[in-house]
Amino acid sequence: MSDANEPVNEYAATFRMVDLDGDGFISVDELKSLMRALGQEIDHVRAVEVMVEADGSRDGKMSLEEFTAFMSRYAGR
Ligand SMILES: [Ca+2]
């Protein structure tokens, strides 16, 4: 099995872990849990700001695609 053509998979496992209620999107609360797991203490206002930044489709939650872009930017390199 080769996943060489699927760079998204790098974050898909993380996405599923972060998506605590399993609805396929990361909510602000789930984002807060993620940031804490990354060692970033974050308050609700900051979490909303991060969400707005990452939420390209403006639906108030992060899809896997948006999450991948977010992680590449935030945790990347
Ligand atoms: Ca969720």
UniProtKB/TrEMBL annotation:
Domain of life the protein comes from: Bacteria
Cited SUPFAM superfamilies: EF-hand
Molecular functions (GO terms): calcium ion binding
Gene3D superfamilies: EF-hand
Coiled coil: none
Family annotation (InterPro entries): EF-hand-dom_pair, EF_Hand_1_Ca_BS, EF_hand_dom
Residue stretches making up the EF-hand domain: 6-41
Protein name, as recorded: Ca2+-binding EF-hand superfamily protein
Organism field: Thermomonospora cellulosilytica
Species lineage: Bacteria, Bacillati, Actinomycetota, Actinomycetes, Streptosporangiales
